[in-house]
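step=predict obj=SAM-dependent methyltransferase n=158
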Amino acid sequence: MNNLTLRPIGKVCNNENGTYIKLDKNYIPALQALESFSHINVLWWFSDYDDAPSRAELQTEQPYKGAPSVVGIFATRSPIRPNPIALTTVEVIHIDLEEGLIQVAFIDANDNTPVLDIKPYTPSFDRVEAPSVPAWCSQWPKSTEESGYFDWSEVFNF
């Protein structure tokens, strides 16, 4: 197997001014024409969980209320996984092409989290008309917009 080399393109910034993705200066030209998209897919690194024990865990005890007693990591959105890669679809509020800043409505990443890549959200590739989910998560919000107002503390067992 080939070794992989990942180079972050920027980082997440959560502060009193809002939530931003700040690109490294070298990647600012890659923002050209992104401003017309309402949403982007952000691939980021769960850097707080990049350790041997987190990468070795393949199953977890019932992370969600109503879920099976044991759930495989691939059936969760847990940061604990073999490769701590995360994907979040976010709404774009504003893009500053000169400073390399993308203001977003929300991202479930901590301040200074490394960002690996950005792709435009396009319904032709990213939207699923009628997805199915297990009964234990069927009452979860049906969109990212609804998720922002949902009381997730009622779902998690941690």
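step=describe
DSSP finds three helices and eight strands in the chain.
step=end
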